[in-house]
Structures are given as structure tokens and as C-alpha cells.
Amino acid sequence: MTRLLEKPGSPARTDTIAAPLKGKAKTARLSLPVRIARIFYAVLSSVFVACVLTQVFFAGMGAFGADWSYHLTFVHLLEPVPLLMVPVAFVGRLPWSLRLLPLALLFLIGVQYAFANVAVPAAALHPVNAVLIFLTGLFMARRAWTDVSGQSKR
Hints:
Layout: E1 2-5, E2 13-16, H1 32-63, H2 69-78, H3 80-91, H4 96-116, H5 120-123, H6 125-151
Antiparallel strand pairs: 1-2
Helix pairs in contact: 1-2, 1-3, 1-6, 3-4, 4-6
């Protein structure tokens, strides 16, 4: 698009405005460290979901007569995963939701400890909170893998 610019007392000049074509505009490719961080984040979030499922399995074992020590010990392997996800999300330049949701997971894990050590009516929220932890982790994993698969189309 070209337009004519005129000001009183100055010579006329033209100005050209270029707009990108719809659907044809190319986006800059992400750098290798950003792509690796995004893949690592998606893997970490998937590992977290698998760990939550394993933790629920151990809880079921304990509820039906097996040793509770598996359920009590395995959680300590689960806790550092969201801590690792926060810096990886920043390196991967992920959306703010994926940067902050690991902190929400840490909060929910802390609440999980509180529910495990209270009297019976409130302790019933322990499995409900486990479902929230699982759903949050699943949401993060799906979003992360969507970002990873979407970057290859750029």
C-alpha cells in the first residue's frame, strides 16, 4: 500500500506500508536450548503424572493390607519434579500458565501432607486433593506436549 504525504511548505513524498500475507508469514524458529527445555518440561510433566498414578497404586496397596511404607516413601521421589519444572519452563519460554502451575503443584503437595495428618473428617480430603494433583499434572503434560508438537510446524 502506498500513500502520498504532503505538508505545507515541504515537498510531497510517498510512504509504503508492507503487511505480511495472511497464512504465509514465517515465525522465527526457536533456538535449540529452548526446544530442548520444552521437550524436557513435557517429559518431566509426564513423569510427574506417572508418579502420581504410581502413588495412588501404592495407596491402594496399603488400603488393602499391604505395607504403607511404599506410599509414604515414594512421595519423596515425587516432590522434586515440580521444583525442576519451574526453571525449565523459563528456559523453554513457555506460557506463564506452565511457568506457574508447578508452583501450584508444590502448594497442593503441601496441602496433601496437611490432609494426611489431620482428624478423620478433614483427612477425607486427602484423596480428593490427590485427584486435583493428578488433574493439574495431566493438564500441564497435555499443554506441554501441545507446545512441543506445535513448534515443529513452525
